[in-house]
Write a structure and sequence with these properties.
heterodimer, A: about 450 residues, alpha+beta, Pnp Oxidase, Chain A, Arc Repressor Mutant, subunit A, 3 domains, about 30% strand, elongated, B: four-stranded antiparallel beta sheet
């Protein structure tokens, strides 16, 4: 009984993962190093097609190939018998390999050289251990299945999205030793992701945005596939992508209302996994590290499982928005000098005094709350009424009100604004205002 | 087929240095086989080339050589990715001499030093190149050689002096 490819997939990581032998129609053997081998499932793998070289010509004419792999830690060697099946030039597998190849290329000084033309898919027909004296297997620093269980239980205990996000980030730190992470959720329009929670960065970046399709995070969202990069790469540097988009594009005139995306300046390992539940993409969980080769296949599996659990939790919490009445606790009346709150209707940007606070749907929610507070003295609001409020214009299809409320709550707390949002029982919130407010609706600023 | 082709001195120096060596063959059904080799020597003048393999690791490959004598060998320096592939059509299996055993030992030491440059610990290199059983020599006359360093030049035929 030979092992499945899943048992030896660590051999596929690394910058020179394998050597492949093929045979030309005239019977001439050929042997060449591969730059990338991608695991698909226990019986399939994919190789990067970058150049129309001899290997490529040979497998199109004769699909038989042999691959020699080495375990990166034990030096155990395995010989795989492969059969070429097809080439994919778009879709999740292709995008995953393209992102990873960019990482490998950057690590090996081949950035201008490596460019993925296709993912060649092979069936693994046999795996044969090569006789040798491999080093003993060292135990992993942590049993990741057990760590996954621990974080899954934390997540299962969370009663709302805020608690679920905290449970996840705490679990990543304590059980996975992952100290740089962020959760981004999909905007209602499905075109942007916004940061709703993060850990390990100087600035939390709550509220920062990235377009679907941009960088490791954006590609993971667009393709709904995990993207794992073992070495630092410039091409997929999400921060750079965002900065460039802001400098050149339509965002240039809105620089003052942008929150910078957090990120490690010297990120060397990156992993982005989609958060999917109920058949829908909700966002992306992103982790990174200053170490090379920090995240392996097992980390990827674990985070995909936890991302799926968070996705299901988001679905369930969305469906369960009704709840109890709030406990009636007195709120001290506003005190001190009035604070001017400005609202720009075009973008729903809200400024507290001179400081930009938030924009978009979260800005519209805040403005609605503040108007009802100032005009009618209200302090308690039900999520359900906000969801139906025409002033908020919540996108109907992708109803992420809870995520917007968390974003708004955290942003207010972070800015130490004179306004706070508290929970007031399930499905309700309470607005706490410390200073008198002067609301100013700005004129629409449509240019041209 | 140029019977008098030979490996030039610079290439000979490269393939006899601290380079990873992988040899490949194919059987009658054109199914390839491959194995990691443990050292290489080039005959004076460059018209003959010998690579050393562990017999137990190369059962299929040795059968293929007995069957059709075709061979391809790729040499790669791990720290620079420079690669050269050499092919032959008259490979034969020869018992390894005492000099060959010394060559393999020197090759392992050279690989330990080379791979240390890219951070591979010695124990892992020794494990990769463990001499598990009998070494045999595969000797052949090179008929063609190719540049295989990744990049636009990959696949270029290396001119062989006559």
């Amino acid at each position: 009984m030979t092992p499945g490819l899943d048992a030896i997939r660590d051999c596929l990581d690394g910058s020179q993962p394998g050597v492949m032998a093929t045979c030309a129609p005239d019977g001439t053997p050929n042997v060449a190093y591969l730059s990338q081998v991608e695991y698909i499932d226990p019986a399939h793998l994919a190789l990067s097609f970058q150049f129309f070289n001899k290997t490529r010509q040979n497998i199109l004419a004769n699909p038989q190939a042999r691959l020699l792999l080495m375990h990166p830690k034990t030096a155990a060697m395995y010989r795989l018998t492969l059969r070429y099946l097809r080439t994919e030039s778009e879709g999740p597998l292709f995008e995953r390999m393209r992102a990873k190849l960019a990482g490998i290329a950057s690590h090996t000084g081949m950035s201008g050289v490596f460019q993925l033309k296709g993912s060649d898919v092979y069936r693994v027909e046999a795996i044969e251990p090569v006789p040798g004296q491999p080093l003993p297997v060292t135990p992993p620093r942590r049993n990741l299945l057990e760590a996954t269980r621990a974080v899954a239980l934390r997540l299962a205990d969370a009663a709302d999205l805020d608690a679920a996000l905290e449970a996840l980030l705490t679990g990543l730190r304590q059980d996975f030793d992952i100290h740089h992470a962020m959760v981004l959720l999909l905007d209602g329009g499905g075109q942007k992701l916004f940061t709703v929670a993060s850990c390990g960065y100087g600035e939390s970046g709550i509220g920062s945005e990235i377009a679907v399709g941009d960088g490791v995070i954006g590609v993971a969202a667009r393709e709904r596939t995990p993207i794992r990069i073992a070495h630092m790469t410039g091409e997929y540097a999400y921060g750079q992508a965002v900065r460039e988009a802001m400098a050149h594009g339509a965002l240039a005139d809105r620089l003052e209302t942008a929150i910078p995306l957090p990120g490690l300046p010297e990120s060397r390992s990156q992993l982005a996994v989609p958060i999917v539940g109920g058949g829908r993409l909700s966002g992306v969980l992103y982790v990174e590290s200053p170490q090379d080769l920090r995240f392996g296949y097992d980390d990827e599996d674990a985070l995909v499982a936890l991302g799926a659990q968070l996705g299901m939790a988001i679905c369930a919490l969305r469906a369960d928005a009704s709840g109890d009445l709030p406990p009636a606790e007195p709120i001290p009346p506003p005190d001190g000098a009035p604070v001017m709150i400005r609202h720009h209707p075009g973008t729903d940007s809200v400024f507290v005094g001179e400081d930009y606070l938030i924009k978009g749907v979260a800005g519209a929610i805040l403005w609605t709350l503040l108007r009802d507070h100032v005009e009618h003295g209200r302090t308690v609001f039900a999520n359900r009424e906000l969801r139906l409020d025409p002033r908020i214009r919540l996108p109907e299809l992708s109803d992420n009100l809870e995520a917007r409320l968390i974003l708004l709550t955290r942003r207010l707390a972070e800015r130490d604004a004179c306004i706070r949002i508290e929970k007031a029982g399930r499905g309700r919130l309470r607005l706490c205002v410390r200073r008198p407010l002067k609301l100013v609706e700005m004129p629409s600023e449509r240019a041209g | 087929m140029p019977a008098d082709a030979r490996i030039d001195d610079e290439t000979a120096g490269f393939i006899q240095g601290a380079v990873s060596i992988i040899a490949a063959t194919r059987n009658a059904e054109h199914r390839p086989a491959l194995v990691r080799a443990q050292g290489c020597r080039v005959d004076p003048g460059g018209a003959g080339l010998t690579v050393l393999v562990v017999a137990d690791q190369a059962t299929e490959l040795l059968d293929d050589i007995r069957d059709n004598r075709r061979v391809a060998v790729v040499f790669t320096r791990p720290s620079t990715h420079r690669s050269v592939q050499v092919k032959g059509e008259d490979a034969r299996i020869v018992a390894a001499s005492a000099q060959d055993l010394a060559l393999a030992a020197g090759y392992r030491d050279a690989m330990v030093a080379e791979l240390a440059l890219i951070g591979v610990p010695e124990a892992r290199v020794r494990a990769l190149l463990a001499g598990v059983g009998e070494l045999v020599a595969i000797a052949f006359s090179p008929t063609s050689a190719f540049v295989q360093t990744p990049g636009p030049d990959a696949g270029r035929v290396l001119e062989m002096p006559r």
